[in-house]
Automatic annotation (TrEMBL):
GO terms for molecular function: hydrolase activity, acting on carbon-nitrogen (but not peptide) bonds. Pfam families: Amidohydro_3. CDD domains: YtcJ_like. It comes from Ramlibacter rhizophilus. It comes from the Bacteria. Residues 60-573 form the Amidohydrolase domain. Keywords: Hydrolase. The keyword Hydrolase applies. This is Amidohydrolase.
Length: 579
């Protein structure tokens, strides 16, 4: 760290006349930051920063605007966000005709017979108001879709985290896939039929992962009800990841930790963008351990051995792209009443259960131990309370023989932890990532499935911090915009009721929220020494805002615009401040 008088490089950029929230150990607020070769030389008063400047230093006067470290999303699903941006979308349709207008426009620009695969009809939390939100009061049928697309097969995906998730297809898609009213389907899936027993084009799926197609990097057509649907091409996957990167740049996200695991297709896309020097979000991704391998020990072992060759320890790569360890799912989604809970509750099927456990205890313990023996970092999605208990118990059992402290194993989602869970994480050095966005989108589901008392305990950010555990904010990709997710850390609202959800004592201060959404996230990617705060020696990853989110009234925070995003001092989004 250069002193005021120590010789060293002169700054090539000085940013000043700003409120710069550093997220250093004291949560200091600075006036200026001096930068050289993409890294911070000095941050503090203008006088202090000027000592590192010379006649050729470029000076940017921000005229009192607020600057924060670039946001770090610790569970973003960037590739999924990109796919959402590149597939046809419906917004918030109010009549079936608006849905048909989108399909009609797609038909006009597609080749005859080309598949048209669309985003869900509506997204959470709006989708909970459908089909009543449509003027017709019903879902669109295949006959509706046929009027604008008689020849191109059309498929509208179900929302992946909604139960039931509704999907829709036209006659061409149904015919190509050989679907009848008697087609065999997975448990929890329904083909709606008319009075003649013919499919209406409306399909229901209460599962997660969905058995009905959700066309993403892990989708395999032959294993679904729609085997004729084309899988994503490399070009489509690359375009989606590139779109996600651009969207994150504009939103002020400079770093992501994809701890849930990335399938092979998106992995290749990230590496292609990196090679082309078009990757402008620092990306740490974890290799996905597919759920079917829980039932195939030999194939799973091959993946463990292969991944250990290039992604052991804290990962392989540079400060822009890094990959390390394996990512697992242990239970299903709390968002749809399918997570593994300590007490029985009424799930999406309307019957009491404890939820889904994707691997039995012994199988999971064996896999985790073999990962530890291979030197692989382990990251596990565990939403419900019983899932958190079992995963941390497994971590502790492995730790007795193969210490994991310092290896930054993680748990993701973890909506219903106990004080004992938090103490175990602190003891083992396990890092949790979760999101208050779930309260916004699924608070009504929590209340219905788990009851008011347990719903009030969900996602206790303040308790994690008070237990000495640096929990990290994430978005799960929906909504991915940091201005919303930062506000939701403070507001903790349920969208359906419009009211706060949970113990008010769990609300963070703005300084705590900013740290949870920057430096704590960087820690999950082993990048806390190079980004996540604005301190000398770190990259100049920062965001300039239209208003001061640390000072404005709470409900004004989501109205804040990102004026510029700098990655290593390079503008990757700019409204004109750095032109």
């Amino acid at each position: 760290m250069p002193s005021d008088t120590a010789p060293g490089p002169l700054a090539d950029l000085l940013i000043h006349n700003a409120s710069i929230y550093t997220v250093d150990a004291s949560d200091s607020v600075a006036q200026a930051v001096a930068i050289a070769n993409g890294r911070i030389l000095a941050v503090g008063t203008l006088e202090h920063a000027e000592r590192h400047c010379g006649p050729h230093t470029r000076r940017i006067d921000l005229q009192g605007r607020a600057v924060v470290p670039g946001f770090v999303d610790a569970h973003p699903h960037l590739d999924t966000v990109g796919l959402r941006l590149t597939k046809p979308s419906f917004g918030r349709p109010r009549r079936i005709g608006e849905v048909l207008d989108v399909i009609r426009a797609e038909v006009a620009r597609r080749k005859p017979g080309e598949w048209i695969v669309c985003n869900p009809l509506a997204h959470e939390p709006d989708v909970f108001g459908y089909p009543a939100a449509l003027a017709e009061g019903r879902w669109p049928s295949r006959h509706d879709l046929d009027t604008v697309s008689p020849d191109n097969p059309v498929y509208i995906e179900p929302p992946s985290l909604v139960a039931p998730g509704m999907a829709f297809a036209n006659s061409a898609a149904i015919r190509l896939c050989g679907i009848t009213g008697q087609s065999a389907v997975a448990p929890g899936v329904t083909i709606e039929v008319d009075a003649q027993g013919e499919p209406t084009g409306v399909f229901r799926d209460i599962n997660f992962p969905k058995w009905l197609p959700v066309r993403d990097g892990a989708f395999r057509a032959r294993e679904s009800l729609f085997p004729a649907m084309p899988e994503l091409s490399e070009a489509e996957t690359l375009a989606a990841v590139a779109a996600g990167v651009r969207a994150f740049n504009q939103a002020g996200i400079t770093t992501i930790y994809e701890g849930h695991g990335i399938p092979t297709g998106p992995q290749r896309a990230y590496m292609d963008l990196w090679a082309r020097k078009q990757l402008t979000v620092r990306t740490y991704f974890v290799v996905s351990y597919p759920i079917p391998l829980y039932r195939n020990r030999d194939e799973g072992q091959r993946l463990i051995e292969q991944t250990a060759r290039y992604a052991g320890g804290n990962g392989f790569g540079d400060d822009l792209l890094k990959f390390g360890g394996l990512g697992f799912s242990f239970d299903s989604a709390a968002a749809m009443g399918a997570c593994l809970m300590r007490q029985p509750y009424v799930g999406a099927a309307g019957t009491p259960w404890h939820g889904v456990q994707l691997a039995d205890d012994e199988t999971f313990r064996d896999i985790v131990r073999r990962c530890a023996e291979a030197g692989l970092r382990v990251q596990v999605q565990c939403s419900g309370g019983a899932a958190i208990d079992k995963v941390l118990r497994t971590y502790e059992e492995v730790d007795r023989d193969i210490p994991i402290e310092g290896k930054r194993w993680t748990i993701q989602h973890c909506q219903f932890p106990t004080a004992e869970n938090m103490a175990a994480c602190r003891r083992l050095g396990v890092l949790p990532t979760t999101t208050t966005n779930f309260l916004w989108m699924y608070g009504s589901v929590y209340r219905k499935a788990f009851g008011e008392e347990l719903a009030e305990q969900a996602i206790p950010f303040k308790s994690w911090l008070e237990a000495g555990v640096p929990v990290a904010q994430s978005t799960d990709g929906n909504p991915f915009e940091p201005m919303f997710a930062f506000w939701q850390l403070l507001a903790r609202q349920d969208a359906v009721s419009g009211q706060p959800l949970g113990d008010p004592a769990q609300r963070l201060t703005r300084a705590q929220a900013l740290r949870a959404y920057t430096l704590n996230g960087a820690r999950t990617a082993f990048w806390d020494e190079v980004t996540g705060s604005l301190e000398p020696g770190k990259y100049a990853d920062l965001v300039v805002l239209s208003q001061d989110i640390m000072q404005v009234p709470l409900d004004d925070i989501p109205k804040t615009k990102v004026l510029a995003t700098l990655l290593g001092a390079r503008p990757v989004h700019d409204s004109g401040l750095f032109d």
